[in-house]
Amino acid sequence: MAARKLAYLTPLYFDDASCIGGGERYPHNLAVGLATHLEGEFEVDLISYGAEPLTKVICPGVTLKVLRAVKKPRISLDVVSWDVPEAIAGADLVHIHMAYTRSNEVAMLAAKLQRKPVVVTDHGGHSSWLGSSLGILDLADQITCYSDFGRSFYQTSTPITVVKGGVNGDQFTPPEVRPERDRVLYVGRLLPHKGIHNLIKALPDHLKLTVCGRPYHPDYFEMLKNLAQGKDVDFVTDADDAAILDLYRRAWVNVLPSVYRDCYGNSHVAPELMGFTLLEAMACGTPAICANTAAMPEFVRHGETGFVFNSIEELHAQLDLLASTPSLVEAMGRAARHAIDTEFDLRVVSRTMGAIYRGLIDRRKEAAA
Amino acid sequence: MKVLALSNLYPPDVIGGYELACAQAVDGLLGRGHDVRVMTGAPRRPVPAVPHVYRDFRLSDIYNEYLLNNAAPVTRDIWQAEARYVCAHNVHALANMLDEFQPDVIYVWNVLGLGGLGVMAALDYLRYPWVWQLDDVVPLWLCEVGQRMNPALLRSLERVRGEFISMSSRLADRIRLHGFQFPGEVHYLPGWIIGEKPEPRDRYFQPGGPLRIINAGQIGTHKGIDLIIEAVARLRDLGYENVTADIFGHTTESSWQGMIHTHQLEGKVAMRGPLPQAELFKILPDYDVFAFPTHDKEPFGLAPLEALGQGCVPILSRECGVAEWLVHGVHCLKSEKSAESLAESLQAILDGEVALEGLAKRGSAAAWRDFHLDPYLDKLEPMFERVSTQSRAGAGELGDVYRLALLAEKLAHLMIHEAHVA
Q: What domains are there in chain A, each with its CATH number?
């Protein structure tokens, strides 16, 4: 049987040439997971945009296709290309990643005019409300989101399914021989809504913290460096996947302290729709700590796979406890990995998503027959 | 059958032959007992209401050059987008009509000015079967962005499935040449004449007698009006004083009169102004030759066929649509698009080398037999029957198609605004 062809449309793609963020990593991972774990049933074209066209095989069954953008947009999520209709023409199904962008309003139009089944997933990037004002989510056949928190934002008649997780448990694994755990870790983009300043404030003086991520906000980065003075904090801004994996493995705990209101007073309605780096650390057998914010508590079981905190003081105490109780760290790490294997791993997510895609494609074929 | 015809304009609001032909075909179908409705643009001037004509579309009047030339660039671009790509209002009106009328087939004419791409996309989305009458390069017009063909729009239009009628293979080839691959069968059916066959004319040109030339229609160099004037001058210079030419049509340019004066052809060539079609038919038997040295992009050329029906023999430029359908030396004469070639054809008539009477009689008989509306309708009806049986499985929802049209229209507006602001 010929592979079913999926077109994933994403304004930006997970690469240094575009953007390194959870919203870009998710479709990348999911594409790889589907191609890897479902025995060739699906092939995925990961379609995105750039100044020049590019085609690159990411792995067998997954091809990145960068379409030539019409022009550089004012907002990167609003990029469009004349080549979208042609790029999706051969697809059995279109999955739109990033619901509220100009880029994907065009994608929705192209997909519907070609009568493709359409799945939509929001990753929190909002640049255009045109489609929302016209209720275009009602045109989708299925919405998937990866948290109950994310689901709460949708107002549409389209069916919504929550498929939690999506971390690559083959890529992020516990080490065969665990190096000495010696630090608290933060992994993610260095942005104000990530609340990294609270983590530095909460850090006990005797503990080491590594802050790992690309600085996308120069003022905030400067502020973090000032806050870190006098504490044992190092910043790693150019880590590759191997370096990040090593950091996850040698940390006592990985912390994601995201906030609804950042240090500049700006509000963030959905600071974390999942919290990908929490799951990556858990997959490596490392406990996770998250703020009691947005979707993150859905993935961290307080007292079992890590902790959820409500204040800087609570975070301070949790960090102290873990650093001083190695057996607790190891127990929580094992529980965390178990949660990944049974609930949040790409294998599990790929099977669920595959079933959704299969159903939609088959129904469309029956309707057209 | 229930037939819904779509046309940007409809008589009495007309620009040219395209919408006149639409009305003739619609009247012909009504006359054969079909239930026909027409959806067209709101008229540019008040017109009387006609029960089967629904003027519910909004026409983006890109035909009004004064307006276009005096509008702000951004406004002009939005008008063009609404004319060519999508007008949500028109998709809404169409969806409502389809829902209420439930036609068996859609008979598409010129949809430039209505957001034609959106109209065709809506028909495709709703899986209504259609036949598109092409009397010009409308698919190309719809896919122009800034006066250039946009390949992505061409490909999008190629995804809508239906059947086409082209008035000539030349027209279809020209559309293909610009990159549009017809997504369905193309039928070649010529233009037609209507009415009753006239009594045989009582006078034909005889060598030595006056040779009276006529041309009627658009006035311009692309139609070869200058070549007619020059040809008469050449013949006069060769000593043929018995040649006159009357040219009917609207023009505001004084250059034609200047050209006649320069060649000292006053009394031989006259610009007669526009004449209603019925009046023109009455005077055609007074002329011997219909000179039609038009451009090679002429999709068809109905006026010389109408003249032929009246026994007035066309001299056609070889490279035009109608020339595909008429045989040189049997129904007409063909020449190159040059004053010299046209003059040579006329000289052959003047010298008696070509018997005009035989051409006129054979041509007229062929015109009423083969190029009448009736044989066209005879071919159209089975085409409609066939396409109306196509499955509509997988048809989208009416509400969805309007929502998509709104999305497309607003996206176009925003992007046009942003391009101008940048």
A: 4-166+345-368 (3.40.50.2000), 183-344 (3.40.50.2000)
